[in-house]
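Our collaborator T.R. sent over the components below with a one-line note: 'Predict the complex.' Nothing else. No constraints on interfaces, no templates requested, no preferences about which chain binds where. So this is a plain run: every listed entity goes in together, and whatever single assembly comes back becomes the starting point for the next discussion.
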Amino acid sequence: MSFSRTVKEELARVAPDKGCCQVAELAGLVRAAGTLEIAGRDAGPPSSAPPDERFHIWVETGQAPVARKLIQLGKAVLGSNPEVLVRKQRRLRRSRSFSVLLASARPRQDLVRLGVLNPGGGLRRDIPDELTVRGCCRRSYLRGLFLGSGSVTDPGRSHHLEMVLRDEALADQVVQLLFSLGVMVRLTSRRGEIVLYLKEADQIGQLLGLMGAHQALLAYENVLALKTVKNRVNRLVNAETANLEKTVDAGVRQAEDVKLIRRRLGLHTLSHSLRELAELRLKHPGASLKELGQLCEPPVGKSGVAHRLRRLEVLASELRGETATTSKRTR
Ligand SMILES: [Zn+2]
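Returned assembly:
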């Protein structure tokens, strides 16, 4: 089963206890995947229908657990048993699709509650405040939207979560809603529909957690944890490489200094300890200070080696005519 289906199954199992959240989740589902139908004729502008006309809402889903959830929510919120139609789609790899028909004894009132119609009767484009004023309802509304229009990739392969919405005004409001919850979603359009999407694993994890998909959140967090460890290892390796390069660069520079001294003055003009180190540096330009110290007889500590190398460096600079002031002081 795809990761997306697993996540939706998990979300379908989240059962909001509070009435306010049940309405919000059903409203989200209807808004994302519902079709409004006026009984007895094709869907037309609902505002033109007489007030006693019967309305139907069809909600389509490709997943049985989502269909079951629609039935539960339909019963709880609308107080009537939804009907379910199962269709086999031959073209789409023989998958099944479910159409759930939500009916109501007080259709107009319920359509207003679900944010499908304005209290005045026209089709509603924004999300009613009552559905998102509480934190619990906001999360439930988003869960409904995601169940109806969302998908998410397996974090082991790539990081992508999206919701495909039909209405631009709705999309803008969902962006605001997510922003208020600390999730920065991006927008694009695809074949006339609005796509809200996230690409960052931490943001995807956050949204999954908000909607109540804790297993899915864990899957995303594991990837993040692994990434952190990998980054730390890379940083260490890089730092070590940088140090190594620095050591080698310095060694090569010091060997050049020694060659200059040998050419201009001859190494025999140096004191015994300086000459010993100069010769060792020529032979081992890549050795660290510690290693050079161990090669000396008797062995010399790291700081002793650094001190002698500095003296060789000053002498070479002097020969190049670079540091007149330093050379005066050393003499
Ligand atoms: Zn609530």
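Summary for T.R.: Residues 187 and 196 are 5 Å apart (CA to CA).
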